Amino acid sequence: MISPLGPALLILALLSTTQQASLKIVSLNGAVGAEPCALTCAGTTGRDTSNWTGWDGYSKITVDISACGFISPPIITTSVEGSVGWHSYMVGASAVRSATKDEFTMTLTGAVRTANYPDQANKPEVGGGTDKWNINWIAVGYTC
Questions:
Q1: Are 90 and 80 in contact (CB under 8 A)?
Q2: How far apart are CA 99 and CA 62, in angstroms?
């Protein structure tokens, strides 16, 4: 016969077990929160939904991270991904600027001399919108 206290004792044991957070933020450019409030949040702007703007050799995108609920600008790591185009030749692919707790901006340029394109007249064009580029991102910060 199973004791009626068995399930209650199991629940009590599980509730009293403390777990250490698996994420530790050593430094941050904004407000520091409590360790249990540390969060890793990730996303993508999407190939067909990225809202690129551009001008003369530049493509710019602002990425919304407000759904993460950060209390200050998080640490942000990015990559540019695309199905076609010259995204692997762009400058600024990891250059996050104007980061806030809710969004960040990136500007890519195609006007760059590389080993493959030493002549500026023969350079790849920036085509974030037409080439279905997107930003993959990971942000680490505090939510409280």
A1: yes
A2: 10
